[in-house]
Design brief:
four-stranded mixed β-sheet; six-stranded mixed β-sheet; 30% helix; 20% strand; 223 residues; 6 helices
Length: 223
């Protein structure tokens, strides 16, 4: 199997989000989306460290949305130049772009400026942003992908800090076609649970019907 850079796996996740939005006519907020597709990405653990200088990022590494029906501007190049200059010169301005970095991944959630991400993606132009916050994520060695006999997938975590706010140490993977490739590239090991009477499988099945969160997640409608 050919080696896939983590940056490519993250770009594929961003593209998958855009396709889901387009297919189902939804505009899932970046934090809502990442909490659905990346188990143990807990918004309550965000670190706030405002003040970082602006930097240029590939728009393919940023999860955004067409917020409130914004359309392409009449002068896209001029608009992007104005927004980039504003973010560079006045990062505290209400229109300055800010993003949240997701763990050690080259992946970012648009915070301020969600709607402009698709504009930059359309023209494949680097986007000037300020990394204002960080969302911690467990190290790969503390995670295990579990694959069930009917191609079900779960993620198990042994990081005690990451498990704060969770009732269980195993999370169901709702979108394996999106999540599993990213986590494999991240370096997460896979454990097969082959038989229906396997104690691990039975325990997961028993526990997974209960809520694993102190607060319920906002659902993404993919029906």
């Amino acid at each position: 199997m050919a080696y896939k850079p983590l940056s490519q796996a993250c770009a594929e996740l961003v593209a998958a989000k855009n396709k889901l939005d387009a297919k189902h006519g939804i505009q899932a907020l970046p934090m809502t989306f990442i909490s659905q597709v990346l188990p143990f990405a807990n918004a309550k653990r965000i670190n706030h460290h405002f003040g970082e200088a602006a930097t240029m990022l590939s728009p393919n590494q940023i999860i955004g949305c067409n917020w409130r029906g914004h359309k392409m501007p009449d002068d896209p190049e001029g608009t992007m130049l104005r927004l980039d200059t504003l973010t560079q010169r006045d990062p505290g301005h209400r229109e300055a772009a800010t993003v949240i970095k997701v763990g050690p991944f080259p992946l970012y959630l648009a915070d301020q400026g969600k709607c402009r991400v698709r504009l930059y993606q359309h023209y494949q132009r680097p986007m000037n942003v300020r990394i204002s916050q960080a969302l911690p994520y467990p190290a790969a060695e503390s995670l295990t992908l579990l694959r069930g006999p009917l191609n079900q997938w779960w993620l198990r975590c042994t990081d005690r800090e990451a498990l704060r706010g969770y009732r269980l140490n195993t999370e169901d993977i709702a979108f394996p076609e999106i999540t599993v490739p990213l986590l494999k590239t991240y370096g997460v090991a896979v454990k097969w649970v082959w038989q229906f009477n396997d104690p691990v499988y039975l325990r997961i099945r028993r526990d997974s019907y209960g809520s694993n969160h102190a607060q319920p997640r906002e659902a993404i409608d993919v029906s």
